Structure formats: structure tokens, C-alpha cells
Amino acid sequence: MISGQPRTHTQVPVNIGTSVMGLRYKDGIMLAADTAVAYGSMKKTKHAQRMAAISSDTAIACSGEMSDFQELLKIFREKHDGDVIENDGALFLKPTDYFNYLSRVQYQRRMKGDPLWNGSIIGGVRQDSGDVFLGMVDLYGTKVEGNFLLTGLAAHYCQVLMQNSWRADLTEAEARAIIEDCMKVMFYRDKKASDEIQITTITKDQGVKIHDPYRIQGEWNFQFFHDKTNEFWRPIRIYNN
Amino acid sequence: MDLENYTNVNIFKKVYEKREVSSIHNVVEQPHHLLKDNTQHAKGGFNPYVNNQGTTVAIAGKDFVLVAADTRISQGFNILSRDYSRTTKLTDQCVITSGGMVADIETLHKLLIAKVKTYQRQFKKTPTVESLAQLLGNTLYGRRFMPYYAFNLLCGIDQNGQGSVYGYDAIGSWDKLTYGVQGSGSELGAPILDNQFVGHNYLVKTLPDDVSVVEDTGKDIINSIAERDIYTGDQVEIVIVDKNGIRVKREPIRRD
Amino acid sequence: MKIEYAKEAVKQGSTSLGLKSDRNVVLVSLKKSPHDLASHQEKIFDIDDHMGIAIAGLTADARYLCKFMRSECLNYWYTHDSHHPTERLVNKIAKKAQVKTSHPGKRPFGVGLLVGSVDETGTHLFETCPSGNYYEYIAMAIGARSQSAKTYLEKNYELFASLGWEELAKHGLRALKASAQETELTEHNVSVGFVGADQKFRLLTAEELRSYLAEINDSMEIA
Lengths: 241, 256, 223
Prior knowledge:
CATH superfamily of chain A: Aminohydrolase, N-terminal nucleophile (Ntn) domain
Order of helices and strands of chain C: HEEEEHHEEEEHHEEH
CATH class of chain C: Alpha Beta
Order of helices and strands of chain A: EEEEEEEHHEEEEHHHEEEH
Number of domains of chain C: 1
Radius of gyration of chain A: 21 Å
CATH architecture of chain C: 4-Layer Sandwich
Number of helices of chain C: 6
Oligomer: heterotrimer
Strand content of chain C: 25-35%
CATH superfamily of chain C: Aminohydrolase, N-terminal nucleophile (Ntn) domain
Largest sheet of chain C: 5 strands, antiparallel
CATH topology of chain C: Glutamine Phosphoribosylpyrophosphate, subunit 1, domain 1
Shape of chain A: globular
Strand order of the largest sheet of chain C: 8-1-2-9-10
Distance between the termini of chain A: 64 Å
Shape of chain C: globular
CATH architecture of chain A: 4-Layer Sandwich
Structural class of chain A: alpha+beta
Strand content of chain A: 25-35%
Largest sheet of chain A: 8 strands, antiparallel
CATH class of chain A: Alpha Beta
């Protein structure tokens, strides 16, 4: 910090994770993100995890600044530990509690002019009542709930795809297929997205389950790519011999 | 002598060069998602305000007050939610409805609920609409230097059983009205209201007495605004406050 | 020991009692009036939609703790949009009370609270003491001559689990009558507060109280 200058905060995100998605399906919630972290236009890491369990029944996936994501995880861990440490026979913090708490944290930080530069999707299924929750919080503290949620560029590219294919009675396989479809579109169109994706499911029976990342199969086998170019675009070549 | 300083042209030139005016509107109108790689932030830093748009209308009647609001919230050209309720119950006889920034609106509404609860315990009675009107004004002005980006209408039944609407700007300047409209469709809604109800220039302000007629008009106004304002749509939420309490109903309107 | 005096203050306070079923908690208090011409001191306070307290001892100390509990509940609601867990709030009071027992220039709270509440883990009835201890009960009475009420509650507590709040309130009033001895129970000197799984905490109105008391008095005379 330069002396005499005011204290500066996160004014610009540096290490950026791109869009995350979340949707409700028959058994609970599915969260998805790819594993790339961009530094400017360079992919700095291609195998980063951008989602985590907050408690046994709540999980979060974040787009935006990755250091702020880690700060969020720290805040949530402290919150969860505080719940556990009381040791009074129950964990009182529900998915909605974490959601509201996150929105208050984000709002306070924006008031300080020092935001946590993330778009976060929180999902949860309560193990006792089976209540399903899916919500999104942005860097201003805006709370949004919905059946399917998208942050960042995915909100532009995948909205219609989700709208047309979402149903309340989706099976896990169908939900996964929709997510993969959306992720494929993001991989094709978003320069910061990658084809390695990761999915977290939250269900009443199994709680939070963070699945291993895997690669989606993009379709690149077009004649165009084989030829590199076509008749109309082929440059004039001059042969000397 | 340097003649340059004496010509009006240079004065204009200076103004012209310094054309980045940092008024609230100039900054918040930009859709957040459309900013290229956050270059705006690199220059100007974090902008804590965002306008989530939406329209709300309130009309006072002889013994009731009616709120008609849309349920859409947006960020830039994106729709964040199609079923957001921008109206909150404060007491059995009073609701607040707002347009502007959702995070600020929710904070403000929650704060007011807490203040109402504290009031009830302290004075063993429910605050009147008149008291809440003053309270809201003070609460908004309390944040004069980082205002709630919320444009409010406070609606309720006063001590004489009459419907009343109070209109506010973001920093707490307020007035008692017979009807009001706030939010992204306020410019479109105001003239319709002026045409349909007894407005500012009438010395004797007679209030409408038929709820169902006012309800239809309220719905029509939100529906009409939804035709022309891209930020208004999805559903119209009707909230009716009368001596029996508060009723809420919703109807779908255009979603495009 | 100052703590002994504080406990004595609780014992001198007029009777408060509480009892709970699976879905409801009821608090009942006998109010005292310092003089024939004076009004009765309020003894049951609402804390939040899901919680209320009945007190025995120094009302001023009780009001201080009441204000603290109310603001804790509001703060919890503001950040989590849900109700404050009961035991954790009782724990916060106990922490405050404990500090007052171990600091030289400080006086312990001269009040005992019965906290009735419904939360995620069901219905609860807690008692807090000036010493910083707290206990959970199915039914409990504190304050002057509370032993008779306790005896009544001990005899009948096995019936409580399935009762609705109306029946609980009647049991509560009968228990209070046992402690009140020659004092006649009227709507002026009795308070009843209750909360349920789907019922916000509230006090009975004077009319409601009058009809319940009439019913109790009739049935007691027959017995």
C-alpha cells in the first residue's frame, strides 16, 4: 500500500471462476460448475474446485473471485463450527439460515465498499423435513430463489435451455443431462469456461455429495475443422516451382 | 494577458471534456453483466448500487388502500426473478411497497419490521400509519450519505379509517398523497393515475369507494406499463388493506 | 454470599409456573400489587413470536433481561430469517448471570426466569437462576410458596404430553391455585401466556382469563 493513499479493497476480481448453475430435481438439488480459473484471459488453473459443503445438508457453488470464495468458505466454516460447538443436541442452522446469513455478509461488505466479488448459489435439503432450498446471492446481497439458477454468462446463454427443459420431476440422470448440455454451450461460447465440470448433489437420503470432476464430450468433428478452412476462405497460394 | 480565459468557448470546452458525470443514474443504468471484463471497475472501483427495476402503484380509497405491483426483478437485461414480492406487511393496517435495488429494499423492510416490533413492545400499541410515515422519512434520511436505493410508497388505513398513501424519494423527502407510483414504470403510470383519480390540482380530494373498480384499474395500469416498460412484467401482485386486515392476490401478465 | 440473597429474592417473588406438552407451552403467574391502590406488576413478557418468559423476583432485573432477550431474538431473525434456538438464548442469559456472581463490585440478578418456547427441536421450558445455572423441565414452579404448585405439577405431569394449550392452562391455573392459598385468583392478579407449534406467543385476554378461572373455581369446589 502506498502511504498516504486510502486503503484499497477488491476493486477488480483477479482470479475468476466463470458461471455456476443450480437446479432442483426430483430428489433434491444439483449444483454444477466447471473447474477452470482464469487470470485475465489466461486459464490459470484447470482443476480447481469451485463448490463446497457448508454443512451436512447445505452446499455452495461460486463464480467470481476465487480468493473471495475461499474467504466465504472460511466465514461459513466458522459459522458451522459455532453451530456444532454448542453441542446442544441439534444443528440449528438450516439451508435458509446459511442463505440469509450469506446475504447479510455480502450486504455488509458492499456497504464497506469491500465486496466479496462472487455470485453464489446455495442449495440444501433438510434431512428432517425434506424441505428443498435453492437460492442465489450476488455481491450486493441480492437474494433470489428459484427452481433453476444461473450466474454470470450462463444467465445469458443457458436461460432458455433451462427454461425449456426444467421440470419438477426430473430424475438425477435427466438433471445431469441438462447440466451437461448447458456446460457444453458454455464451453463452446465462454472463453473462460472449460470442458471439465464438477457436480454436487444434495439429497434427503445422502446429504451433500460432491462428485469427482469429469470431462464433457464436445463435438468438434466437423469437416470444417479437418480442412481448417474452406473453398471461399482458402488464401491464394503462390507456388514457385 | 491570456485571452483564452476570457472566452466562453473554453468554459464550454472544460465542461465538455469533463463529461463523466457521476450521478446515480449515470452509473446504475449500465447493465452489470454487459461490462467488458469489469474495466469500469478497474477505473472507477466498485459501484455499490444496482437498479433491479420494477413498478409499484398505490391508490388510497375511502376505507381501503390498494397496492398493485409487478413481480419482476432484473439485473441489466437479465431477469433475476419472476415472482418477487416488493410489498411487505408492517402492521395489520399498513404495508410498504418499493422499487429500486432489491438488497436495499429488503434491508429497509426488515429494519422497519424490527422497528415496529420494538415500538409495539415499548408503547403497548401498534404504530399508526402517520407515525410510520415519519419513521420511514427519518430512517431514509439517516442514510443520507449512502442512501437506500429504494423508492417507497407507505400505504395504510389512518386513524379515521381512511386510506392513505405516502410517497418518498430515496433520501427521505416525503408527502401524503391520494395515489402514487414508483419504480421503472413511474413515468408511464403517473399520467394514467392522474387521469383516472382525483389528483394534485383538486382542492377537494374525494377518494374512490369501490375496491373492485380500483383493483381493476390498478391491474390495468401495471398491465399497461408492462406493455411498454421492459423491466415490468410477469405477474401483478394486488395487496388490499382495509379494516379487516390485508389480502394478497396475484395474476399473471405478459412475461416477455 | 451475595448469590444466596439473590436466590432469596427469587423465593420472595410471587409464584410463576410453566408446563408443556408435545406442541404447547403455557406460562402462568400470580401478580402482586404493592398496595391496594396500586396496579399489579406484569410478570409474563413476550420475547418473540415463538418465545415468552414468566418471572419471579426483581421485576427491574427481569425487564433488563427481557430487553436483552428481545434484541437477541431480533438480531438472530435479522441475520438468519428464523427463530433463535431456545437453549442457546438461555445459555446467553446464564453467561450474563455468571459474570455477576464472580465479579466483586457487581450484584447478581435477583430474578429467576421460566422460558417457554417452541423451536426446531420441539417445545421447551427452561428455568434460569441468579447463579448462572439453568435447567430444563416438563413443568416447574418458582417463587413464593411454589412448593404446593410443584406438588400439583409432580402429581399430574404424566398427563401433559398430549394436551392442547387450553387444558394445559387449566392445569396451570389449578397448580397456581394450590400455591395462592387464601388469595383469590382473579383476571387482575393472574397472567397466562402460551405458545404452540403453530400458535404465536400471546397472553390471554381478561375475558378469556375470567372464563377459565370461573371454570377452575367451579371444578375445584366440586372436588
